[in-house]
Amino acid sequence: MKNMTLPFLIVLALLLTSVSPQYGFAETTLDQASIDLKQAIEKQQQAAKNLEAAQSKIKKIQKEKQKTTRDIYALEDNIGSLENQITSLDQEMLALDKEVSTLEVQINDLNEQIEQSNAQLISLEKQSSQAEDNLHMSKESLQAAIERIESRDSLIRERLRYMYTNGSVSYLEVLVQSSSFADFLDRFQMLTTLIDHDQDILQANKSDYEQVALQIIEVEQQLAQLISLYDQQVITKETQTLAMDEQIAAKERQLEAKDQQEAAKLTQVAAISKLEVLKQSKNNHIAVLNKEEQVLAEYTEEQEQEMIAAAALIAASKKTIAYYQGDKLRYPLPETYRISSNFGRRTNPITGKTGTMHNGMDFAAPAGTSILAAESGRVITAGWVNGYGNTVILDHGNGLWTLYAHARKGGIQVENGQIVSRGDKISEVGTTGNSTGNHLHFEVRLNEKAVDPRDYLDL
Fold first, then answer.
1. Model confidence over 282-299: pLDDT tens digits?
2. pLDDT band for position 339 (50/70/90)?
3. Is residue 39 over pLDDT 50?
4. What average pLDDT does range 79-93 have in this prediction?
5. What is the pLDDT of residue 453?
6. 158-206 pLDDT per residue, tens
7. Cα–Cα separations (whole angstroms), residue 124 to 84, 117, 128, 229
8. Dihedrals phi, psi of 374, to nearest 5 degrees
9. In the prediction, which pLDDT does 4 show?
10. Terminal CA-to-CA distance of the chain, rounded, Å?
């Protein structure tokens, strides 16, 4: 602003000093003009200091804003990571729930298997006990039959020894040697009884032998059955032991799965808590950023007004030829580029504020693209303007200005006061100031008021 205002004031002072003094009035006027000039310079210097302080504050806010934006991106990344972690934990917990349910079903099946095995084992033990009792009774019956046979055999062997000792005597000899008929009858009766007794012994022995043979077969069968029952009992016990081992292992897996589930729940709770903290931190950062952006927007509006006022002073201090005669302005770039934002109300891409007035038209051109004068005119601004970055303003006369903003660092190709022709290169596309990317911000102002460039450009 200092560079813009001072030439005007100097010109004003020179004009005042050129007036011839008449009757002391001119001298008084000159003194007053000197005083006014001095005060104006002091005000201008103070304004320059204020503007410099404002610029410093804006840069600080912009840096803080950039840092806050990076912090928000980092927080959003952390939040996204935690959300993914929570989703993963949810899936893990579902898998663990399914595993626990499967193990519970497996344990229930094993319990039923053990119960069936126990019932089978009890039945086998009863059968085994009954088989042992039957086998014991069969052994006793067999032993009694054997003892009876042995007793009869003893009698027969005794008679045989007697006959062998006294010689063989036939039943006929015993009868012939009878002393009387009565003796004969007695001898006959005795022989008959002896023969019957021998037959009974033989028959009894035959019956006992048959019984012993059957009992031997029965005992062998019972013994085989008992062995089979013992084998089944062993298999059942082994099956039961295996089922119990599997049940224990299943319960251990179930406990392990529940422990994992509890750990997953704790981790999830911690992740959710951390997520809430990060979200709150993000909200706080956004609130701070919004406040800073609001302050920045206010500064931007103030500096725009100061820029226009300074340009007006410079334009007023110099007479500009009326280059503009109402014809269409030329396209401000060497070739056609996409219009990324039109003139009018919009959402500010920097502050996010809705309904913000956009005083120009944005062309999305690559960095370094030549920016051309839309019409011949005088340079009234060529330098840094807050918000606009590196800016060139041309005065085309008849109250018409054109503004070219956001030129790259070192991209301005003209100087204040320079006369340029239509189509001359005046700067290069960049992204300085409040900009979200390389582009040309182009304004048309009529009597310092922004108007829609579409009404003036040859598009």
1. 778 777 766 665 665 555
2. very high
3. yes
4. 77
5. 96
6. 665 655 555 444 555 555 666 666 766 666 666 667 666 666 776 776 7
7. 59, 10, 6, 6
8. -75, -20
9. 43
10. 34
Is the predicted pLDDT of residue 213 greater than 90, yes or no?
A: no
Higher pLDDT: 96 or 297? It is 96
**How many residues can be counted in the chain?**
459
Q: How many CB atoms lie within 10 A of CB 330?
A: 14
Whose tokens are 């582009």? That residue is 439
pLDDT digits (tens, 9 = 90+) for 1-37: 444 444 444 444 444 444 444 444 555 665 665 665 5
Q: Annotate the chain with three-state secondary structure.
A: CHHHHHHHHHHHHHHHHCCCCCCCHHHHHHHHHHHHHHHHHHHHHHHHHHHHHHHHHHHHHHHHHHHHHHHHHHHHHHHHHHHHHHHHHHHHHHHHHHHHHHHHHHHHHHHHHHHHHHHHHHHHHHHHHHHHHHHHHHHHHHHHHHHHHHHHHHHHHHHHHHHHHHCCCCHHHHHHCCCCHHHHHHHHHHHHHHHHHHHHHHHHHHHHHHHHHHHHHHHHHHHHHHHHHHHHHHHHHHHHHHHHHHHHHHHHHHHHHHHHHHHHHHHHHHHHHHHHHHHHHHHHHHHHHHHHHHHHHHHHHHHHHHHHHHHHHHHHHCCCCCCCCCCCECCCCCCCCCEEECCEEECCCCCCCCCEEECCEEECCCCCCEEECCCCEEEEEEEEECCCEEEEEEECCCCEEEEEEEECCCCCCCCCCCEECCCCEEEEEECCCCCCCCEEEEEEEECCEEECHHHCECC
The label of the residue with tokens 């007479």 reads 319
Kindly list the distances between the CA atom of residue 220 and the CA atoms of 207, 227, 332, in Å, as whole numbers in the listed order. Answer: 20, 10, 120
Distance CA 1, CA 198 (A): 159
Distances (CA, A) of 391 to 55, 104, 304, 369: 15, 76, 12, 15
Residue 116 tokens read as: 């069936």
Which is nearest to 374 in space by CA: 409, 423, 408? 423
